[in-house]
């Protein structure tokens, strides 16, 4: 831990590293990890729970008066009337983890009166530590990071997450992907939204979009992006997106080119835009060969 960092960020780093140690130990014998299913294709492991417990214990030992919002335990821990809320995803990318696919991370953010002010995204497989304090910039392993400088979509690498649960709107997502894929240099689906956002902040990708996300998926990563000079919002470009279940992040120039492509697929779009999105989805369905 560094004496130059904000004290609350130092505690979050300590919590993230403790969780990362648990995840790395379990990854040595991932076949023995107990897995259960929250719903179709939505997994949780004993590692998620152990990681979350370690994070919460570390945070509440330092700040017992703070509130907790965590993926597995919800709001059951901490002082829930506090203005200080720790938003935790103890293992983002669980499906990757249980398959031994090394793309997953720990995500911890601190929101103060609804605004994210501290962020840690820790990749235990690479020992990559992404951190940010509001107004102080974003860092990877204590080195300052910035979003990419690319200005054209056709030169850009874009990350996303595919829908995978029963009831998800697959036709609309295919239409969305089609709109983006035809205009960028490549589309990637790593499988951990918090890490996707960290990569936008570090300039490793130029943009990211996904629907169906919860606050713990995007809280920490969103601060990394904005502190690295990028923009984050919903698909219509509105910056107050944390509870909207859709996220778009990119460097400013690419963000400006992605909003017009994605806004018609937003739940906050107008009737005309939504009609256009339905037409695009219908065209894709009609163009698919019969099985």
UniProtKB/TrEMBL annotation:
Name under which the protein is recorded: Inositol-1-monophosphatase
Positions with a binding annotation for Mg(2+): 71, 89, 91-92, 217
EC number, as in UniProt: 3.1.3.25
CDD domains reported in the protein's UniProt record: IMPase
Needed cofactors: Mg(2+)
GO molecular function: inositol monophosphate 1-phosphatase activity; metal ion binding
Pfam families found in the cross-reference section: Inositol_P
Organism: Hylemonella gracilis ATCC 19624
Enzyme class: hydrolase
